[in-house]
Amino acid sequence: MRKREVPVGTTSENVEDDPRFVAALSRGLSVLRAYRRGDQGLSNQELAERTGLAKSTISRLTFTLSSLGYLDYSTLTARYSLSVAALALGFSALGSLAVRDVARPIMQALANRVGCSVALGAPDRRTMVYIEHCQGPGPLQMGIEVGSHIRMTTSAMGRAYLANLEVGDRDRLINELCPDDEAGRAARAGIIRSVDEYRKQGFVTSIGEWKSEVNSVGVPLILHGSQPFALNCGGSALLLKETNLAEVGRDLIDVARQIQRAFRAGT
Predict the structure, then answer these.
(1) Model confidence at 265, in pLDDT bands (50, 70, 90)?
(2) How close are the terminal C-alpha atoms of the chain, in Å?
(3) What's the whole-model pTM score?
(4) Model confidence pLDDT, tens digit, residues 7-26
């Protein structure tokens, strides 16, 4: 019997007990994932804090990764930074995503028409990562680049991804994302509302919830034989008013359909 696949961005509860699971590889990748935009370098202690791994384990992992060329070590600061080799992995991954080339002109046309930002993203554990971004001529520049991560719980892109998951997978991920505190309960309520929006109208909204001055709409993008993606269109609340969101949402649904058709035609 084929084992049930786990959605991208989530982990199976028993995956670490699977004999195929390589714990050492998982820990090594967690070190690489610990780096954030703007980090100039991280010490073993900082990496231990970010990953939750013991400092002794981190020391062995950073030595191995630097020996393999994925981390650079500075003797002046005693910190490790991502190397060009690690950066090349990211560019290789982006280059292999054919959907970017297909989607870019279709997304840019909508961005130009509504004067807002249109982005394509994919789930990365508890966040969404931008893999393509088209900026319209509107006054608010989102300041988000390809490779940036945004919150899954409050962004329209993240909520679109969550709304399209199977119920059990979505509930499990929501429980991981939304702690039982005021912020977590607010995020959970927003996701539940988005699921209802998606069921009724095919798109979701985030009205000042990701950033107070930004409104956005999102839709999932499902391509056969590919990982799940999501699209969003966001802009200044002064330009992208609540009263306009339904129209933009319908436009974004059409953009997703155009990308699906073009992707099928090119594969």
Answers:
(1) confident
(2) 29
(3) 0.73
(4) 444 444 456 778 888 888 88
CA gap 252, 165 in Å, rounded: 19
Name the CA radius of gyration of the chain, rounded.
20
**Could you count the other beta carbons within 10 Å of the beta carbon of residue 156?**
33
Residue 247 to residue 166: CA distance in whole angstroms? 27
What is the DSSP track for the chain?
Answer: -PPPPPPTT---TTGGGSTT--HHHHHHHHHHHT--TT---B-HHHHHHHH---HHHHHHHHHHHHHTTSEEEETTTTEEEE-HHHHHHHHHHHHT-HHHHHHHHHHHHHHHHHTSEEEEEEEETTEEEEEEEEE-SSS------TT-EEETTTSHHHHHHHHTS-HHHHHHHHHHH--SSHHHHHHHHHHHHHHHHHHHHS-EEEESSSSTTEEEEEEEE--TTS--EEEEEEEETTTS-GGGHHHHHHHHHHHHHHHHHHHHHH-
Domains, the chain, ordered by start: 15-89 (1.10.10.10), 98-266 (3.30.450.40)
